From TrEMBL:
Class of enzymatic activity (EC top level): oxidoreductase
Oxidoreductase is among the record's keywords: yes
PANTHER family: SUCCINATE-SEMIALDEHYDE DEHYDROGENASE, MITOCHONDRIAL (PTHR43353:SF5)
Swiss-Prot/TrEMBL keywords: Oxidoreductase
Family membership: Belongs to the aldehyde dehydrogenase family.
Example GO molecular function: succinate-semialdehyde dehydrogenase (NAD+) activity
Domain Aldehyde dehydrogenase: 25-477
Active site per the UniProt annotation: 255
SUPFAM superfamilies: ALDH-like
A single GO BP: gamma-aminobutyric acid catabolic process
Protein name listed in UniProt: Succinate-semialdehyde dehydrogenase/glutarate-semialdehyde dehydrogenase
EC number(s) recorded for this UniProt protein: 1.2.1.16, 1.2.1.20, 1.2.1.79
Length: 484
């Protein structure tokens, strides 16, 4: 920790109503690269969640009555502080989550970009006037903030997944309570420290840290004072949270699992496709919901693509994310490593061919070798499941109909990618893929200006872009009568 310029960014307790709340119990935050203790943090629970919701409710009138300009000014302060402290925030993130420092700093900039984007977007929450059916009436439509927003976020992007939600919520005039993943609370608490320094008033942005995910989640999804619930995480957990929200008919948005196909057509730029697959697959050690999960290659270019892709993956350097030059960090924990190992072993059993890697780097660690499997079929576990690890399954196809059929043969529909140059093929495939986001000759597609989200069992709603505000607003229809 001594490497931090501003040690005050390391906070050890939940941030509720503008104060730091210590609890008797504590939870240990450990570094997945070394297993070493990073920090002990107060282990809050249901009582703190209820207090945070009450605080957010109390702050809502004040916050929602501020002008969009006033809210934007405070959010701008927050953005500036996040960028000013990008190095420290990146280092904290790498220590608790493991991704290489360069990626972690990139995540800080990515998260801050949402604060920057929505600070401005909040000024453009327009309504409508609608010609009335009779001349004694006037119809006006206004948009108003939904109220208190509750969020549960994952460990794989412990800064950006919070920023992507909180920025839209605050810009809309909502107040916000987030319960971050147990394994990565420090990034969320550092965001709260900077929100306080930015002048964001007490009760507007609250972070409650605790390992009772189920109990805390029950309050966040069922409390009558929470107007909207937003979640990023696995589809299985998302489903149970959606059902918990039903009891109070909350607005819900879900960013869930994925199984992204990466399709290389015979007319693709193979070198570009190799670089795109490398970036999309091995970012965050493959632990992102939009990571390439299956690589479909036209049979005529499979040999050429495989040779170049194996060479590129062989160049990846696995190690501690704080070490200069490391490009693939550890996985989040040992369970994640064994889950991936099982997918690899079971698929090899079914006929997949191990071309590169395929095992843990060092017994007892969280490091898994960048891996490539060939001769994979879509029914094998490595293709049918979301891998969430640094493994590339290669699947061959003969024509565009077969490519689409394989790509769409999944309950997920978050991101898909393909490389091709024929404009007719590009449009047919882009329109035929059943996914919410499509990278065309591009492997990295996430940014604050674009609507992030999926279809099928990858979730609902969109985050980022002008569309990202809608989930935090209610439409109100005003009908004015008696006007002659
Ligand atoms: N769509 C997306 O953007 C993302 C999707 N994912 C998906 O999540 C999976 C891996 O991430 P992982 O963190 O394990 O996902 P989980 O869904 O297990 O966890 C996500 C968050 O939900 C919390 N949580 C878990 N169970 C419950 C529950 N019953 N009630 C309330 N909260 C709960 C977790 O808390 P705790 O940490 O304490 O367990 C964590 O904060 C992958 O399948 C991946 O697809 C992950 C990240 C992003
Ligand atoms: O949760 C995730 O995996 C992120 O949403 C991926 S991204 O937004 O950083 O692409």
């Amino acid at each position: 920790m001594h490497a931090l310029k501003d040690i005050q960014l390391i906070k050890h307790s939940s941030y509720i109503n503008g104060s730091w709340h210590s609890s008797v119990k504590s939870l240990a935050v450990t570094n997945p690269a070394t297993g070493e203790l990073v920090a002990n943090v107060s282990n809050a629970g249901i009582a703190e969640v209820e207090l945070a919701i009450e605080s957010a409710k109390d702050a809502f009138t004040m916050w929602s009555k501020k002008s969009a300009n006033e809210r934007a000014g405070l959010m701008r302060n927050w953005f500036n502080l996040m960028m000013e402290h990008q190095d420290d925030l990146g280092r904290i993130l790498t220590l608790e989550q493991g991704k290489p420092l360069a990626e972690a700093k990139g995540e800080i900039a990515y998260g801050a970009a949402f604060i920057d984007w929505f600070a401005e977007e909040g000024k453009r929450i327009y309504g409508d006037t609608i010609p009335a059916p009779s001349n004694d009436k006037r119809i006006v439509v206004i948009k108003q903030p939904v109220g208190v927003v509750a969020a549960i976020t994952p460990w794989n992007f412990p800064n950006a997944m919070i920023a992507r939600k909180a920025a839209a919520a605050l810009a809309a005039g909502c107040t916000f309570v987030v319960r971050p993943a147990t394994q990565t609370p420090l990034s969320a608490l550092a965001m709260a420290e900077l929100a306080e320094r930015a002048g964001i008033p007490a009760g507007v942005f609250n972070v409650v840290v605790g390992d009772d995910a189920r109990g805390m989640g029950k309050v966040l999804t069922e409390h009558p004072d929470v107007a909207k619930f937003t979640f990023t995480g696995s589809t299985s957990v998302g489903k149970s949270l959606i059902s918990q929200c039903a009891s109070t008919v909350k607005k819900v948005s879900m960013e869930l699992g994925g199984n992204a196909p990466f399709i290389v057509f015979s007319d693709a730029d193979i070198d570009a496709a190799v670089q795109g697959a490398l970036a999309s697959k091995y970012r965050n050690a493959g632990q992102t919901c939009v990571c390439t999960n299956r690589i479909l290659v036209h049979k005529d270019v499979m040999a050429q693509f495989s040779e170049k892709f194996v060479a590129a993956v062989s160049e990846l350097s696995t190690g501690n994310g704080l070490t200069e030059g490391v490009t693939v960090g550890p996985m989040i924990n040992k369970q994640a490593v064994s889950d991936v190992q099982k997918l690899v072993d079971d698929s090899v059993e079914m006929g997949a061919k191990l071309v590169l890697g395929g095992k843990i780097v060092q017994e007892g660690s969280c490091f898994y070798q960048p891996t490539i499997l060939a001769n994979v079929s879509n029914d094998m576990p490595i293709a049918a499941n979301e891998i969430f690890g640094p493994v590339s399954p290669l699947i061959s196809f003969a024509n565009e109909e077969e490519a689409l059929a394989i790509a769409n043969d999944t309950e997920y529909g978050l991101a898909a990618y393909f490389y091709a140059r024929d404009i007719g093929l590009i449009w047919r495939i882009a329109e035929g893929l059943e996914f919410g986001m499509i990278g065309i000759n591009e492997g990295i597609i996430s940014n604050a200006a674009a609507p992030f989200g999926g279809v099928k069992q990858s979730g609902n709603g969109r985050e980022g872009s002008k569309y990202g505000l809608d989930d935090y607003l209610e439409i109100k229809y005003l009908c004015m009568g008696g006007i002659r």
